[in-house]
Amino acid sequence: MKKYLPFFLMTCFISVLFFGCATDSSVSEKIPLIFFTQTAPDENETTLAYSSDWQPQQGSLDLNPNPSFELVKSLDLHWQGKQQIIFSPRPDKTEMPVNFKNITNDFEIITSQLKTPAQALNPLYYAGESKEYLAYGLENKIILLENQGDKTIENAFAVPENDGETIEVIPVLLSLRDKEPILLVVVNNPVMPAEKLYLLNINGKNATWTLVSKADTHCSYIASGGMEAIILNSHVYMSDPCGEGVLAFNLEEKVPTPVPVATINQELKLAIKANPSEAQVDPHFGVYNDILLVRLVTGGAQGKDNLVEWLWAFKGEKLLGKIAIAYADEKITVYSNGKEVDSKNLPGIKSVLLPFN
Fold first, then answer.
1. What SS3 state is found at 335?
2. Which of these, 197, 134, 135, lies nearest to 161 by C-alpha position?
3. How many other C-beta atoms lie within 10 A of the C-beta of residue 117?
4. pLDDT tens, residue by residue, 220-250
5. Distance from C-alpha of 128 to C-alpha of 132, rounded to nearest angstrom
6. For residue 52, which of 35, 77, 75 has the smallest C-alpha distance?
7. Of the four, 28, 195, 208, 303, which is 20 to 30 A from 66 by CA?
8. Roughly how many angstroms between the first and final C-alpha of the chain, as a whole number?
C-alpha cells in the first residue's frame, strides 16, 4: 500500500526547497495606534486624531495621512484597538459634553453612563463585552460600579485593616479575570510607615483581599503621578515604586511576589541614560492581543526641550520593536532589531493613544 505525505507537509517540503518554510516567527504582528496633533492650540484643546498600524517586527508604521476625527478635551479615552472609543468623564468634568466630529467614520466615540463623585480617589474605568465598570477609592472603601444597559449596581468593599484612622484607598488597576472584576489597590495608612499593595478579587458582593507587597519607607506607589499596572494573560505588570522599572507577578501564585522584568528594564535604562529626565519617570502600559506595550517619556532635564516618548512592544520575554516620538522635532522613528527602519513627520504631534484590551 502506498503512503502519501499529508498535503501540508508536501507543501512545506516544496517551500523549503525554494523559499524556506514559513513559521510563526515570520508572521508580523500589527498593532493599531492613534496619534493626536494640535497644530493651533486653543482654549478648547481641540485635537486631530490620526489612525495607524504599527508592525514592530518589520519596523514599519502605516500612518493615515488624513485625520480620522476631531476631538475637544481628548482626555480619559478608553480604546481596545477597534472602532469604538469610550469617554469616561473625570470628577471635575462630569457634566462636560464631548465635542466629537467624525471625519472618516472609522471610529465611534461613546460617553460612559457611569458618573464619578467629586471626592472619588483615582477613578478607573474598564469596558467588558457587555458591561462597563468604574472603581474608585472613597474613605476606607473601594466603590465598584457595574453598568449593563440602563441598570447600574454599586458595591462597596472595606479594606481589611481599619483601626479607625483615616485611610487612603487608591485603585491602580481595574480589569476582568474569568469574567469577574479584579483590582490592585494601594492602602495608605498614616499610622503605618509603608504603603501596602493588595490584590482585590471580587465575586458579586464578596471580595478577597490578598497582600501583594509593602513599599519600602523611601518608596511610594502613589507619589508623583502614581503607579500604573495592567494584566496580560496570567501576569500583572506594574511600575516599580522604588525606581524607573517594571515589576511583574503571576496571578496563579498563592503568594504573589512582584519581581523585576529584566528584558523590559534593560530597554528603559538605555532610553533614560540616552536622554535623562529631571525627576523619576514611570512607565505606562497598553495591551493588544498577547502583546504588552510599554511607554516612557524621557528628557526635559535642565529645562531642555527634548522630550521623547518611547514605545516598546513585547511578546513574552521577546522585544518585537520600538518607536521613539520626538515631540520638538515632530518626528516618529520606528526601530527594528536595534536599527532605525522607518520614520514619519507629524506636525503638532502631542500624544499617542494605546489600545487596552
1. strand
2. 197
3. 11
4. 887 766 789 999 999 999 999 887 799 999 9
5. 6
6. 35
7. 28
8. 52
